[in-house]
Amino acid sequence: MVDKKVHDYINKDEAIKLLQDMIKFKTVNAPGDELPLAEFIKAKLIEMGVEESYVDAFGDNRGNVVGRIKGTGEKAALFFNGHLDTVPPGDIIWEHDPYSGVLMDNKIYGRGSADMKGGLAAMLVAMKAVKDAGWKLKGDLIYTATAGEETDSIGAVKYTDEGGLDGVGAIIIGEPSSNGVNVAEKGAFWVEITTYGKTAHGAFPHKGINAVVHMNALVSELVSYKFKYEENPIVGHPTLNISTINGGVKTNVVPDKCSVTIDMRTVPGQVHSEIVKDFEDIIEKLSYEIKDFRAEVKVLNDRPAVETKAANPFVKLAVKTIKEEFGKEVEAKGVNFYTDASVFLPGRDLPCIFYGPGDADMAHQPNEFVPVDGYMECIHFYIAMIQNYLVK
Fold first, then answer.
1. How far is the C-alpha of 388 from the C-alpha of 341, rounded, in Å?
2. Using an 8 Å Cβ cutoff, are 159 and 79 in contact?
3. All domains of the chain in start order, with CATH
4. What is the pLDDT of residues 338-373, one digit of tens each?
5. Is 5 exposed, middle or buried (0-12, 13-18, 19+ CB in 10 A)?
6. For the Peptidase M20 dimerisation domain, which residue ranges apply (predicted)?
7. Phi and psi at residue 247, in whole multiples of 5°?
8. pTM of the entire predicted model
């Protein structure tokens, strides 16, 4: 059980105001504009006495923020992470201003409240309580808030490429999990396939090569495509969705180009390059069957599926911590969407859990909110994990 004295250093009203203030920053991606919020968080870290705090600014009003409480070096570092950017509020009118952070019915409303400024704020409050309580840590506690997760993870890629994960032993990402433990996420593999033909007047279609007709043949093959995979006990099986199609310029013109985009959600163990090879084989097959058939594949987004096994000691520690602190039995679960873990984990033997306040179903939805009770429980969980991983 956590040393309850540390809870005396948590001010609930201040914790709520911190999240409300963070929601008020418009960090919609695109374009991102995360830098002002990064500077705000840096000021909070310095105010907390976290001396090793800095903003890494890059691009056009973009940036990461990092804070580190130094430990003795007896243990590897615990890495807290979340993203600064949000998706747009959408076209549906919200009941409350999406950037107000309004508190009503014990819920904090606003774009990013659940996804995922709630987790970022909770991590800050937990760090402050530990710092104020004077805990001596056996390993470093690192806080990172990165730019661009909603699109290209530019911040996580930059931080990782510069060696930010050196010395890290375990990762907690504050994505919304309804205060449960998620340990796996599907990969996101998006491709664009384009068929090419030859333009001609619509009155003389025999003089052209119809790229749309050729795409029809290709799509028929794609909808019956069978992935090579082993079903994952946590995230299940992969999916394929034909998402968009675009071809032709005018009704009276034979189209010489047609493109589709495909959204695939993969499971751990799948190799995305093998899927591309399969698609290229389908194209080659059609080129023998259909005269003048020609197509090419372009990768748009390549996020591998990642997983930390439920039997991993760090996952077991998180599950045990929840039982000890809140009396709840939880099982490790997974999510169908990707996070910055798809950048942090490949090629590294690092355990990672996702734990944050709010329901993942609230992400990207109008009237997004995070329950205050879940937010405060999240703070207590982070504190308990700091003690169990870095103090004991």
1. 22
2. no
3. 4-185+305-391 (3.40.630.10), 187-303 (3.30.70.360)
4. 999 999 999 999 999 999 999 988 889 999 999 999
5. exposed
6. 183-288
7. -160, 150
8. 0.94
